[in-house]
């Protein structure tokens, strides 16, 4: 059994009291590693290291050098992409080829911010003939990043890249289900030349370690990704210290299919939009809203393809849908499906996968791609985030009703519109209340494109250079250019 330490001040750091927790390989139902369980003293040590580095080594590192280090980190990750993808896949249950795609996205994100690090500019202007003003964008300070289990390495870089580019230092807490690639990222950051203390990783349960980190008096900013309920808790903690905070939270995103769409293309794209990562995606388009006249055609084709997706060993290239992150996540998802059926939804395909996989795989950690038809938008399954491979189908009769249903949830992360009428695509895109809207394509997140939520999906935008705003404070400097003393009292 591998024992894994945290990374604090550039060193492998076991827990102060020697305690550990287990992290698993869900697809096989086995334990993968024992990981240090941080105490509050360990959290304190990590924040202290980040604080020392902020005004020390990192403040002395020029933007050009920070840029080179981030680019070097991107290269190192690229060089180890296969090994990192395998580790991620084993720890998370997601197919390895999907982990590889996410690691490539992490590399692009680091490249983007490596470039941006040298272009963090202020503005200057003459306020009047006697006063010149200029602004500086200074690092916001020591940041806490708290991330979920569904895109472990990628989520870590979404925060690390802009934070370090801006000159901040960071303490990252990965989810306990998937801490391993974040710890590898820490080692690679050191190898890239990033000074000790600039990037630290602490591990352990959210309610203890996450709270101790978020509420630490020397944390200036919290970048959180996770459930909306946890985000609300983080916002409350941040409010106590008036800490800066950005929140990337849950979703219940609509996938609108108009009858004038290319239905074959809509079916293929909609499959990806919900079943990628076994539906454990914040931006999963988990509500199909389909125009009544296209309903039968669409659902028949969609459900047929959903049932044909290949479920299996996440390490095999042919696997399209891996396991859930844990057996308990699979149980939660199946609980939602059962309750929906009792509420009147029609199970078209999907549900539990009992004993249909080989002996080395834990079938209880798997859920088949599931389609629930005849779902009322205001029902529980129509409103709550399931976070599994489950899509609901609801019909609409016209564009106005489609928009109303799309917006009638508390979330607003993503949406996709399938239509053959480009004017309608643009019109509906303008009216849907979501941070990312796709038209006739299913992808929601690209480096360079701002990503984040409306409504209870959170606030703040990551992934584009706008994310630098989250990690910088503006300082205005006002300088006298007057040839004589300014004398506002007329003394
Ligand atoms: P979660 O909220 O349970 O946990 C996220 C992180 O917060 C973990 O590291 C956890 O240990 C920590 N945490 C839990 N309680 C805490 C507390 N009281 N104080 C401080 N930290 C705490 O979420 P999850 O189950 O790991 O991930 C799934 C959720 O994340 C879904 O709701 C999904 O939509 C969301 N998500 C959102 C985005 C986005 O960009 N909007 C991306 C990925 C995932």
Average pLDDT confidence is: 97
CA-based gyration radius = 24 Å
**Shape assignment:** globular
The CATH architecture of the largest domain can be given as 3-Layer(aba) Sandwich
- Structural class call reads alpha/beta
Number of E-type strands: 23
Distance separating the two termini? 79 Å
Low-confidence stretches: none
Count of discrete structural domains: 2
Question: Which sheet architecture does the biggest sheet show?
Answer: 7 strands, mixed
Helix content: 25-40%
Largest sheet: spatial strand order? 15-16-17-14-13-19-20
Determine the CATH superfamily of the largest domain. Answer: Aldehyde Dehydrogenase, Chain A, domain 1
Strand content: 15-25%
| CATH class identity of the largest domain | Alpha Beta
Bound compounds, please?
nicotinamide-adenine-dinucleotide
CATH topology of the largest domain: Aldehyde Dehydrogenase, Chain A, domain 1
Number of helices: 14
Indicate the topology.
Elements: E1 2-4, E2 6-8, E3 11-13, E4 20-25, E5 30-36, H1 40-55, H2 63-79, H3 81-92, H4 96-116, E6 124-128, E7 131-139, E8 142-146, H5 152-165, E9 169-173, H6 180-191, E10 199-201, H7 206-214, E11 221-225, H8 228-241, E12 244-248, E13 254-257, H9 263-275, E14 287-291, H10 295-308, H11 327-342, E15 346-352, E16 367-373, H12 380-383, E17 390-396, H13 399-407, E18 411-412, E19 414-418, H14 422-431, E20 436-439, E21 454-455, E22 458-459, E23 472-480
Parallel strand pairs: 1-5, 8-9, 8-11, 9-10, 11-12, 13-14, 13-19, 14-17, 16-17, 19-20
Antiparallel strand pairs: 2-3, 4-5, 6-7, 7-23, 12-22, 15-16, 18-21
The structure holds nicotinamide-adenine-dinucleotide (NAD).
Nicotinamide-adenine-dinucleotide binds next to helix 7 and helix 8.
């Amino acid at each position: 059994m591998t024992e894994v330490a945290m990374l604090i001040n550039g060193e492998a750091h076991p827990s102060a009291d020697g305690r550990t927790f287990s992290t698993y390989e869900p697809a096989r139902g086995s334990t993968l590693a024992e990981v240090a369980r941080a105490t509050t003293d360990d959290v304190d040590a990590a924040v202290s290291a980040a604080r020392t580095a902020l005004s020390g080594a990192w403040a002395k590192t020029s933007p050009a050098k920070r840029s080179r280090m981030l680019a070097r980190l991107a290269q190192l990750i690229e060089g180890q992409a296969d090994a990192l993808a395998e580790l991620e896949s084993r720890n998370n249950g997601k197919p390895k080829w999907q982990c590889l795609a996410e690691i490539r996205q992490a590399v692009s994100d680091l490249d983007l911010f490596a470039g941006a690090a040298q272009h963090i500019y202020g503005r200057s202007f003459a306020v009047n003939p006697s006063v010149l003003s200029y602004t500086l964008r200074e690092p916001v300070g020591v940041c806490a990043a708290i991330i979920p289990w569904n895109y472990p390495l990628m989520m870590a870089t979404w925060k690390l890249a802009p934070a370090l580019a801006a000159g901040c230092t960071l303490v990252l807490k990965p989810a306990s289900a998937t801490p391993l690639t974040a710890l590898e990222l820490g080692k690679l950051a050191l190898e890239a030349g990033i000074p000790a203390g600039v990037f630290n990783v602490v591990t352990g349960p959210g309610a203890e370690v996450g709270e101790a980190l978020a509420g630490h008096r020397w944390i200036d900013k919290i970048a959180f990704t996770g459930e909306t309920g946890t985000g609300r808790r983080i916002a409350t903690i941040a409010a106590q210290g008036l800490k800066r905070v950005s929140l990337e939270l849950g979703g219940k995103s609509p996938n609108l299919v108009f009858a004038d769409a290319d239905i074959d293309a809509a079916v293929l794209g909609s499959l990806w939009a919900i079943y990628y990562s076994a539906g454990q995606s914040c931006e999963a388009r988990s509500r199909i809203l389909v125009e009544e006249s296209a309903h039968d055609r669409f659902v028949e084709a969609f459900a047929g393809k959903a049932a044909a997706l290949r479920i299996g060993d996440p390490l095999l290239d042919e696997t399209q849908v891996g396991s859930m992150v844990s057996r308990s996540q699979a149980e939660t998802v199946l609980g939602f499906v059962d309750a929906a059926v009792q509420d009147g939804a029609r199970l078209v395909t999907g549900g539990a996968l009992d004993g249909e996989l080989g002996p080395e795989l834990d079938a209880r950690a798997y859920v088949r791609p599931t389609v629930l038809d005849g779902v009322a938008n205001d029902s529980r399954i129509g409103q709550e985030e399931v976070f599994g491979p489950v899509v609901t189908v609801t019909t609409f009769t016209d564009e106005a009703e489609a928009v109303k249903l799309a917006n009638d949830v508390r979330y607003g992360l993503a949406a996709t519109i399938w239509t053959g009428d480009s004017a309608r695509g643009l019109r509906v895109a303008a009216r849907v209340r979501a941070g990312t809207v796709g038209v006739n394509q299913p992808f929601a997140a690209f480096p360079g494109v701002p990503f984040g939520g409306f409504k209870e999906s959170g606030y703040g935008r990551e992934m584009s250079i706008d994310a630098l705003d989250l990690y910088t404070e503006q300082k205005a400097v006002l300088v006298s250019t007057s040839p004589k003393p300014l004398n506002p009292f007329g003394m």
